[in-house]
Amino acid sequence: MKRLLTRIAGAAAILMLSGHLASAEGKLALYNWGEYINPEIIDDFSKEFGVDVTLDTYSTNEEMLARIQAGASGYDLVWPSVHMHDIMQQLGLLQPAHPNQLPGWDAIDKAALRSHEDPNGDFCLPYAWGSVGILYNKTHIPELKSWKQFFEYAKDNPGKVTMLDDLRETLGVGLIMTGASVNSRDPDEIAKAEAFIMEQKPNIGAFRYDVIPLVTAGDTAASHYYVGGVLNTLQNPELLGFVIPEEGATMYQEDVCLLANAPNPHNAKLFMQFLLRPEVAAKNSARLTNGVVNTEAVALLPEELKSNPSINPPQDVRAKLQIFEDMGKDLRLYTRAWDRIKTN
Amino acid sequence: MIAGDTVRSRRRRALLLLLAPITLMLGVFFLIPLGIMVVYSFLEPGLYGGVEWNWYPYNYGRILGWPLNDYEEFDPIYLSIFLGSLKVACLTVLFSLLICYPAAFWVSRMSERRKTFVLFLIMLPFFANLLVRIYAWLLLLRPTGFINTLLQSAGLIAQPLDMLFSNFAVIVGMVYIFTPFMFLPIYANVEKLDYSLIRASQDLGATPLQTFLRVILPLTAPGIAGGSVIVFIPALGNFIVPAFLGGSKVQMTGNLIERSFLQSRDWPFGAALALLIMASVVLVLMIQFTRTARAQARGAV
């Protein structure tokens, strides 16, 4: 009798425990960039853990920060770029989620711990990274290798190229071409970069994010664009190409962070743990065509991604990629330069 | 006497009751946000968006081109952007007026059934989202788009015209969006036009030009003024059209405001720019208001 009781109690305890683990129940609210997660991952997580997941999107770091600062509550996880991760952590908007104590953390490439504020991964989980290069139409330009070639083509075919409508990115190209760091705080260097872009402006068709339809149709020959464009080059390899220019390029990386006022921190950590699974990271990258920060996921990538020099670049190319740092008050230097470029 | 008073006070109470919701709504959704904007425009920008609560009148100085620190020089770029916006808004008013004024006369002479149908056609674009309609223009104007393909197959042009991402595309898009707003006030006015006055003018020996300038134009002036104001105000602050069809190379104050909040983290400067637009709109409305009042006073005499 007693044995039966203990057995029942044990079974009940196991049931309770497993119930606790498997059905975390309740909700999880994600606030991510538009089209920056494979929707299948959300579905899989939802099904496995019985969590009701909602996803809202933003299109710039500043937009997300403004909403969180204005008191938007109800979100659990956000995807700031590394410099915004630093800012948000300094502003006390994040709480430590300790992804570094979760199973699977060892597979995270330690080079991806780029945040100055969070060097050990106590707060946020590195998510994905990518470069910003050039997407081009091969019927117009058979092979594009460098910014130099891009601007020469633009000179001969004014209006047939576009650059991003982003002050840091596009002035960043100016800085790269004039031999300065994309995080320069030197007014003279920024002035030189401004002059460089200004000189190209008559040949640049537009400053624009949404370029894939234009490049595909051949309305523009080449466009400054994110590595996400590789997805289109894989679908249409005869027509489209993507390149990290020889002179160098900028790169970005986002981290997954837990907000200080997150209503569902437990589910949020569960989701981080889910993202740490190599097969999940690989599935995500296959959709986003981004670089992975999970060393075990690299082997699981589809062959065309693994061997793609834009997504999995060799070391010498990686060395030429620069990541943006927060400029603080000096952002004003860039703003003025950008306003002048846009106006004149 | 007493009865009259109660009727009057009852009326007053009813009026107050009827006006209360709109007053409350304007107070909450217009005056308070406006107040926040005014206050913010005099504060120091926060390092990461938002504001520092320090008195900081330089946002307005910056609009006028004053340098904020040592390495900046006097450079009135923001004023020139504002003047550029004024120009685009005025051109939009002009072209939509040129389209709508004759069209209003044409429609007003139609049979009732056709009139209703044409008015329905004019309202039809409102059923589709603005962004979708702007995107449609992108597809029409681009080098491999409908217009270029048509012109090329007709043998009229050898190379596709560069229409997209230009001032031309911006004006086309703006006129397209705002045409209905211009049409409706003018049409309302033209419809009421008393044709016996025109016949009288002709009988008295006026030339067609004289009839137009001295009879038709003054009678339809309120519609023209109303339509122009209704088009001018939103056109001045528009930022979608320059971003989409101008390729962000044509810049209006609306784009600058958007960027101040979403890219350069300078909310007070954005607020100051928004107030500048608002002030110019109020100015236009005041001119319009005093002119109508004067015209009415003259009409009374």
TrEMBL record, chain A:
GO terms for cellular component: periplasmic space. The keyword Signal applies. Its main location: periplasm. Spermidine binds at E35, D166, L167, R168, E169. Pfam families: SBP_bac_8. GO terms for biological process: polyamine transport. InterPro entries: SBP, Sperm_putr-bd. Keywords: Periplasm, Plasmid, Signal, Transport. Residues 1-24 form the signal peptide. It is found in: Periplasm. GO terms for molecular function: polyamine binding. Required for the activity of the bacterial periplasmic transport system of putrescine. Belongs to the bacterial solute-binding protein PotD/PotF family. This is Putrescine-binding periplasmic protein. It comes from Chelativorans sp. (strain BNC1).
TrEMBL record, chain B:
The chain crosses the membrane at residues 15-43, 77-105, 117-140, 168-190, 211-236, 269-289. Pfam families: BPD_transp_1. It comes from Chelativorans sp. (strain BNC1). Residues 82-288 form the ABC transmembrane type-1 domain. GO terms for cellular component: plasma membrane. PANTHER family: INNER MEMBRANE ABC TRANSPORTER PERMEASE PROTEIN YDCU-RELATED, INNER MEMBRANE ABC TRANSPORTER PERMEASE PROTEIN YDCU-RELATED-RELATED. The keyword Cytoplasm does not apply. Keywords: Cell membrane, Membrane, Plasmid, Transmembrane, Transmembrane helix, Transport. This is Binding-protein-dependent transport systems inner membrane component. It is found in: Cell membrane. Signal peptide: none annotated. One of its GO terms (biological process) is transmembrane transport.
